Amino acid sequence: MKSRVLIGLAVVGVILVGAGIVVMFGQSQPLWSDDEMAMLRSLSIDSLPALPPDPSNRYGDDPAAARLGEKLFFDVRFSSNGQVSCGTCHKPELDFQDGTPLGHGVSTTQRRTMSIVGTAYSPWLFWDGRKDSQWAQALGPLESAVEHGGNRTFYAHLVDQFYRADYEAIFGPMPNISLLPLNAGPVADPDAKAAWETMTSEDQEAVTRIYANMGKAIAAYERLIMPGQARFDAYVQALNASKTDQAASILTSDEQAGLRLFIGKANCTQCHNGPLFTDNHFHNTGVPSVATLPEDTGRAQGALQVQHDEFNCLSQYSDAKPEDCAELQYMIAEGDELIRQFKPPSLRNVVGRGPYMHAGQFTTLEEVIAHYSTAPAAPVGHSEIHPLNLSQEEIWQLIAFLGTLSGPVNAEQQ
Q1: In CATH, which superfamily holds the domain spanning 34-51+227-293+339-409?
Q2: pTM score, whole prediction
């Protein structure tokens, strides 16, 4: 009888118990290996380092600047039609994006609105990285003909009229701009552009300084917008504390299976790594083009734009020293590998943030994962991905895991 029991145990071999422990011939083994646990810790929100200062924005951590920036962020007067603010496309209730395939300002853009949650950690902004700071990023839509549709003197006059005291408390006295044109700037609008060219270089510089400071105030507010703890983070905390029973109650078996796929067979961490689930770099993953939109070369164009950007880290409007701008100075600026590379967005709160990809090409996460599973050739350039041949069950398990990354957004009000 005793020998039959031993044989029976040998046949059973390995069983999984609900507490997240593998029992092998009476000896307990952890569900996750040491290397896997190291990966899980690296993905946890607890691994997010302290927010470093932005050397290009001396006002980035000024509470008064953040208060002004929040007001500017939600003020629809800062648009040509009086109906568009930063918050129009970056809605707090939608993870600071808008849930549409293409962004809609005074007209329609050619790309999806990216969430700005946690972007204070990113060296590059936008899908193509054409800006290298949050404050420079904030300025782009303001002068875009299809987003805010305004111009520099228009914005300077608004600041002078409605926010002069707030502005001067932070940045010092505003220059006298009362005699400057109401609408002038280096923009696409021919009348505003012509008016800008009639201004002296001194007046242009003074107005541009006000404009840059607007961006720095908005960035001070945006630096406060961070992801909060999700169920995944609570799961890792429980595992770290050896509370396996508690961990097993936090994630379902399908969610745990999806997590195992995420860090293993599916190779998602090639691009979506770190506590924000993005490497903040650029990748060509063969995402299809949109027939109704112009060809989008992604980072190939964005790298050239940030090099020559009027507001980059090395510009006269930056507060950084040249040695603070290593990312810009040593970036890869050209090469065929940059073609159709796009920045992978954070996967935190991704379940509620469709449609997906840089122009909303995929409606559902199932479509996204199916794309990565089949790995079609890139429309242009070389795709980095290879077929995963995931089963339908594995696709649903990955989606189940991604749901565990949903959590609150902390946008501390000043």
Answers
A1: Cytochrome c-like domain (1.10.760.10)
A2: 0.92
